[in-house]
Amino acid sequence: MPELPEVEALALDLKGRLDGRAIVRIDLAAFMALKTFDPPLQALEGTFVDDVTRHGKFLDISVGGLHLCLHLARAGWVRWKDQVPAAPARPNGKSPLAARIVLDNETCLDITEAGTKKSLALYVVRDPLDVPGIASLGPDPLADEFTPAMLAGILESEGRKQLKGVLRHQGTIAGIGNAYSDEILHAARMSPFKPASSLDEAELATLYNAIRDTLGDAVDRSRGLAASELKGEKKTNMAVHGRTGQPCPVCGDAVREVSFADSSLQYCATCQTGGRPLADRRMSRLLK
């Protein structure tokens, strides 16, 4: 799933490609992806792109006073094409294509979603805050106003909730998903199950620095990369996420995993839990 660093890089890449270009047409291939009807999608046709920005994990393409907001969900992506394909973008249950944005220089942007579980979402709105997911976002962890004091207030208000869940919840802190929450907690040497309100002053400073440094470094590495390069860049720079069974780059212990119904987390027991493996609840149920 694209998270803050990848969406930030996507916005920067698309800004350079789309700025000042006119949208000739938008072909919708997955009708369920479009979540709004007023303004209509066709209202964007014939207008010029003004800007491309990010809100958490949402892309925001500003077009002629309107906003095309895009949430890529778990398996969505954007693919730039230097030439519009001859085959039209038509509804096809087997195709990953959700929508195609055709530009006035005969290039196009394909919005795709792999897999059978379709949750990619497109919104055409007058104000980004008209998108419920954007309106409910928590603070951006790389914004100047995201201070240690703000993080302390968030953790205190979350009480005994586990750090992993707090970091991932978009209404609490925007932009961090499954992968970077694993990486942040590994950098902070903290258990994913540690209660949010249990951090002392030193631990709070450590977590704050891990959030800013992990995300900031990922943004710096991704800046300037084309969309086609971002997935590989993210994967090759993970310390624990997606690396179950491989050696921890800090201590050499094997990276462990906890599985849930539709996701999993990775961590290093030596670095994060004092050498104690965390209970894998799904496996425990299967063994009963």
From TrEMBL:
Molecular function, one GO term: damaged DNA binding
List, in alphabetical order, the GO biological process terms annotated in this UniProt record: base-excision repair
Give the UniProt family note.
Belongs to the FPG family.
- Does the record carry Hydrolase as a key word? yes
Q: Does the keyword Lyase apply?
A: yes
Where would I find the Formamidopyrimidine-DNA glycosylase catalytic domain in this sequence? 2-93
Under PROSITE patterns, the record lists: FPG_CAT, ZF_FPG_2
Species for this entry? Nocardioides cavernaquae
Matches recorded under PANTHER family? FORMAMIDOPYRIMIDINE-DNA GLYCOSYLASE
Top-level taxon: Bacteria
User: Which reaction is catalysed here?
Assistant: Hydrolysis of DNA containing ring-opened 7-methylguanine residues, releasing 2,6-diamino-4-hydroxy-5-(N-methyl)formamidopyrimidine
Q: Which cofactors does it use?
A: Zn(2+)
Q: What is this protein called?
A: Fpg/Nei family DNA glycosylase
List residues of the FPG-type domain. 239-273
